[in-house]
Amino acid sequence: MSPKTLYDKIWDAHVAHEAEDGTCLLYIDRHLVHEVTSPQAFEGLRMAGRKVRAPEKTIAVPDHNVPTTEGREDPAQMTEESRIQVQALDKNARDFGIHYYPVSDIRQGIVHIVGPEQGWTLPGMTVVCGDSHTATHGAFGALAHGIGTSEVEHVLATQTLIQKKSKNMKVEITGKLNPGVTAKDITLAVIGKTGTAGGTGYVIEYCGEAIRDLSMEGRMTVCNMAIEGGARAGLIAPDQKTFDYVQGRPHAPKGAQWEAALAWWKTLYSDDDAHWDKVVTIKGEDIAPVVTWGTSPEDVLPITATVPAPEDFKGGKVEAARRSLDYMGLTPGQKLSDIEIDTVFIGSCTNGRIEDLRAAAEIVKGKKIKVKRAMVVPGSGLVRAQAEEEGLADIFREAGFEWRLAGCSMCLAMNPDQLQPGERCAATSNRNFEGRQGRGGRTHLLSPAMAAAAAITGKLTDVRELM
Amino acid sequence: MDKFEKLQGIAAPMPLINIDTDMIIPKVFLKTIKRSGLGVNLFDEMRYDADGNENPYFVLNKPQYRDAEILVAGDNFGCGSSREHAPWAIKDFGIKCVISTSFADIFFNNCFKNGILPIVLPQEQVDILMKDAEKGQNARMTVDLEAQEITTSDGEVIPFEVDSFKKHCLLNGLDDIGLTMEKAAAIDAFETRAAQSRPWV
Ligand code: SF4
């Protein structure tokens, strides 16, 4: 047999039909659904008189525009439109008989955190969701990607997607990371190097010692932002850490099924001489704690650097950089570590897991915030409960952070958590686009530890100085 | 779905690179449970000021481009979220074809599901089309999907590539779900095989 990549292996195991021109029907093992991108899809099903083909493989949770403040079960806490979307999901989940975690359920949270937490996401699966950060699940060696609403409807009706195969790209992070450098810095550094379109047309497999050394939480952070690099999906081959994480979760296989699953999962790696269409290698020790300065996730620099000038770039990027700097209110040559911050947001499917909260709490412990506002929004009700048990919630509260309920919150600011025009935010989320966190809001992306450092000092700060 | 055959129309130039889905349709407009009505909010934050007044400098607000049906855009158009509201808004505005050097993957797919033709061309050719679009109202461009050719207002012909299956669906206005359902036997067979080989799924 010819050597295969991990992506090749998962792909081959899921082709239900292949047309002569290579267009395939890819079978979908798990379909995750949230309230924003699904109403039109369910409506389409109803209009055509179609059913959900595999309701037992379909999981719904409201996350994008739910409030993250106490008492949110009260519908009066939501705007009319948000309420309609959440109620539509409630109704659709019930009518079509799919798994559902309402806001009143402690297991509710951001869809990409709930899936792995509940053991819905397993190695070797195909996982889709009407959300671009579905790539997160790739950390388990699952082929996971975002789809549009028409495709959500297609998967609901047929449990397949019409797909053509992407190309294979290998991103290797060699060696060890330096202290203060995290999974978030890796993933931002990769995008900084390859650009936001560098992965277009590819599925990326992340490998190398620095990736192996990451926890499952860290691997999810890395894969989560594969989409910001333009890739269809990000993957990491499963290993003992993956199996240990999965074992015992509510929907993970048990007994003889576990053994059978494990036997297959252990074959899920890229063969030594597999073909790669593109290879990028970065030395782990070359990665520094980074922040973004502009309005594209590729606008990444080490915290020790200065704000660049538009002339430092080429082609269309010159104008884009000028526009970014204007929007961000920054001057070329200014030190990144001199930039003052108004708001700190710790959360999102990129960095809203327990390990992220631990890393932030370690920096915050015993100190007070110097920013106007800082909030921690755990990725799920279970993450929140665990953080409370470990005493992290108290650390945050005592420092002056708001301690919120689970949801997407200020990652995309569809709920009431929004920046004001001109307000500057250090955020652990994944997008710094214009207006992403509120019209006119200015976002700097960074790791949870770096966000915590900014909260304590009131400006972007090299976390290594606080360690 | 509407058929896409041949389009002759005004092309609007948007040379900015990395136009993301938050720019195309900001999230405040994602709260709808319908597919229609998003056209007035296309490019909302660039098109209107905070009070809702039109920005006269924004290309689609200029008299000569208000009826544009083609968009010529900078690299990496449609990056960001999976929101299909982006192509819905584009379609609702009246734009049926977007031309760029590259598109984000999900956005690209979403276009085809909504009768919009995204065309990828090398930089030099996008530059030619950008110049042509800058001429304004009288510069009508023609996009012929069957022949896979764009003709500028000067009569210059630029061929383009398109996936054969996607082309077939666009030309005939075919609904993907209906097509896939015709292959139900293959899906059934796959499920039976998978139940044997991966019963834990
Ligand atoms: S946390 Fe942000 S990126 Fe993640 S699913 Fe929610 S809105 Fe999307």
UniProtKB/TrEMBL annotation, chain A:
Entry superkingdom: Bacteria
Record-listed E.C. numbers: 4.2.1.33
Transmembrane segments: none
Protein name per Swiss-Prot or TrEMBL: 3-isopropylmalate dehydratase large subunit
Molecular function (Gene Ontology), one example: metal ion binding
Similarity remark: Belongs to the aconitase/IPM isomerase family. LeuC type 1 subfamily.
Required cofactor(s): [4Fe-4S] cluster
Functional pathway: Amino-acid biosynthesis; L-leucine biosynthesis; L-leucine from 3-methyl-2-oxobutanoate: step 2/4
Lineage of the organism: Bacteria, Pseudomonadati, Pseudomonadota, Alphaproteobacteria, Rhodobacterales
Automatic annotation (TrEMBL), chain B:
Keywords: Amino-acid biosynthesis, Branched-chain amino acid biosynthesis, Leucine biosynthesis, Lyase
All copies of domain Aconitase A/isopropylmalate dehydratase small subunit swivel, residue ranges: 1-124
Function in brief: Catalyzes the isomerization between 2-isopropylmalate and 3-isopropylmalate, via the formation of 2-isopropylmaleate.
Annotated Gene Ontology cellular component terms: 3-isopropylmalate dehydratase complex
EC number: 4.2.1.33
An annotated GO BP: L-leucine biosynthetic process
Region forming the signal peptide: none
Pfam family, one: Aconitase_C
Pathway: Amino-acid biosynthesis; L-leucine biosynthesis; L-leucine from 3-methyl-2-oxobutanoate: step 2/4
Similarity-based family: Belongs to the LeuD family. LeuD type 1 subfamily.
Cross-referenced NCBIfam families: leuD, PRK01641.1
UniProt cross-references to SUPFAM superfamilies, sorted A to Z: LeuD/IlvD-like (SSF52016)
Name used for this protein in its record: 3-isopropylmalate dehydratase small subunit
Catalytic activity: (2R,3S)-3-isopropylmalate = (2S)-2-isopropylmalate
Subunit: Heterodimer of LeuC and LeuD.
Single GO MF descriptor: 3-isopropylmalate dehydratase activity
